[in-house]
Amino acid sequence: MIPTSSMERTLMTGDYLFVSKVAYGPRVPMTPISVPLIHNVLPITGGESYVKWIKNPYRRMAGFRSVKRDDIVVFNFPNGDTVLKGDPTADYYQCIRLYGREYTYKTYGPVVVRPDDKKDNYVKRCVATAGDTLEIINGKVYVNGLPQNNYPGIQNTFTVYTNGTTINSKIIDDMDINPNELYFDVSLPGYINFPLNEDEVEKIRAMANVIDVRQNIDTYPPDLPDSPLTIFPFEGDFRWTRDNFGPLWVPKKGTTVKLTIANLPLYKRIISSYEDNSLEVKDSLIFINGRVVDSYTFKMDYYFMMGDNRHNSADSRYWGFVPESHVVGTPSVIWFSKDKNKSFPKNIRWKRIFKTV
Questions:
Q1: What's the structural domain count of the chain?
Q2: What confidence tens digit (pLDDT) does each residue in 117-141 have?
Q3: Gap between the Cα atoms of 195 and 166, Å rounded
Q4: What are the E-state strand segments in 307-357?
Q5: Best CA proximity match to 193, nearest among 90, 307, 310, 305
Q6: What per-residue confidence (pLDDT) applies to 137?
Q7: Which of 11, 20, 83, 97 has its CA 20 to 30 A from that of 150?
Q8: Are 161 and 211 members of one domain?
Q9: Are 8 and 124 in contact (CB under 8 A)?
Q10: Residue 304: is its pLDDT beyond 80?
Q11: Among 257, 258, 274, 265, CA closest to 232
């Protein structure tokens, strides 16, 4: 079930999905002993639904195809290996960076450590695959120098200035815009964060009570609620924001990169966590498994995932690459959909039921 608006309006909050796990090849269960039909948390006790004393290494059976650019992909949340029980939806590593370990543990602890296949499931669009070079310029995604396809669900936020009146709620409802993301600020007057795709900008601008429409673009340093500590890779002199990001090369299996202190922040989590090496830096020297190195060869392919709702999505801009070992599958069918902002029967989105993704 889609719990947040990060993929609206491609996937709506309240969509229930069938996910094809055979499309990219089903994984051999890494944690084979678990309660059936429950992903990671028991509904009554709140305890973990699996045991960790039997584990399998990552292996994937043959699938119909590999992950392609612009695919919508379900995957295990890369930073979900450590979960704060006091706030399970929070990014543990981001909390540590922002608040420090002592405050985080005291306020949101205790913590639970989860294996890869029991991390929470996320769904985003794969905007760059292994070997691609990605760059975001003023909110527009470019891969290998070419702009991303303009899918109708991809939206950014805009400041919409009006003559003091609000936009008709029927128009907002017909556009399938989440009303929880809209706030009319009388001091503008207008809407500070109005989510629109490229085709809708001119439609809104043409309305009689609209004075102007301006895209919201973050320049460095990032605007609130972002900060240099929330934008990947969190350290070094990268000076990136959610709207101006990269260029960034996406690691590819078998490719060797030159390692330096300057580019190590991009790859340190891959080396230490996803590919299970010890990593240390001493006296400006990089040690992997106890040996001084100046290069690294990747063992897996990686992907860069982004939500279509670009200003309301926790994605690779905030936690980096997604390893191939974390890929679960791709959504195939919306089998049910309901709008939590409406009451029955108007809350049932009949047009979305059995819609293919």
A1: 2
A2: 999 999 999 999 999 999 999 999 9
A3: 15
A4: 322-323, 327-337, 355-356
A5: 310
A6: 97
A7: 20
A8: yes
A9: no
A10: yes
A11: 265
pLDDT of residue 223: 85
Summarize pLDDT for 306-317 with one digit per residue, the tens: 999 999 999 999
pLDDT over 80 (residue 180): no
Q: Which domain holds residue 200?
A: 156-215
Looking at the domain assignment, is residue 286 inside a domain?
yes
**Residue 5 confidence (pLDDT) above 90:** no
Q: Which residue has the tokens 């240390």?
A: 280
Dihedral angle of Cα 229, 233, 237, 243, to the nearest 10 degrees: -80
Residue 78 identity (one-letter amino acid): P
The string over 296-331, giving b where at least 16 C-beta atoms fall within 10 Å of a residue's C-beta and e elsewhere, is bebbbbbbbbbbbbbbbbbbbbbbbbbbbbbbbbbb
Pairing of strands 190-196, 156-162: antiparallel
Count of C-beta atoms within a 10 Å radius of residue 8: 23
Residue 177 near residue 195, CB atoms below 8 Å: yes
CATH number at residue 181: 3.30.70
In a domain, 24, yes or no: no
Contact present, 136 and 147 (Cβ < 8 Å): no
Among candidate residues 147, 199, 189, the one with its CA nearest the CA of residue 167: 189
Q: Where are the alpha helices (DSSP H) in the chain?
A: 92-99, 101-108, 169-174, 198-205, 264-269, 316-319
**42-65 pLDDT per residue, tens:** 998 889 999 999 999 999 999 999
Structure tokens that stand for 78 in this block: 């890369």
Phi, psi for residue 209 in degrees, rounded to 5? -95, 5
Residue 277 lies in a domain: yes
More confident of the two residues 345 and 274: 274
Confidence bin at 232 (pLDDT 50/70/90): very high
CA distance 248 to 255: 15
pTM: 0.94
With respect to residue 189, please indicate whether it lies within any of the assigned structural domains. Answer: yes
What gap in Å lies between CA 357 and CA 311, rounded to an integer? 22
| Whole-angstrom distance, CA of residue 286 vs CA of residue 44 | 46
Residue 152 in this model has a pLDDT that exceeds 90? no
| The total number of residues written for the chain in this structure | 357
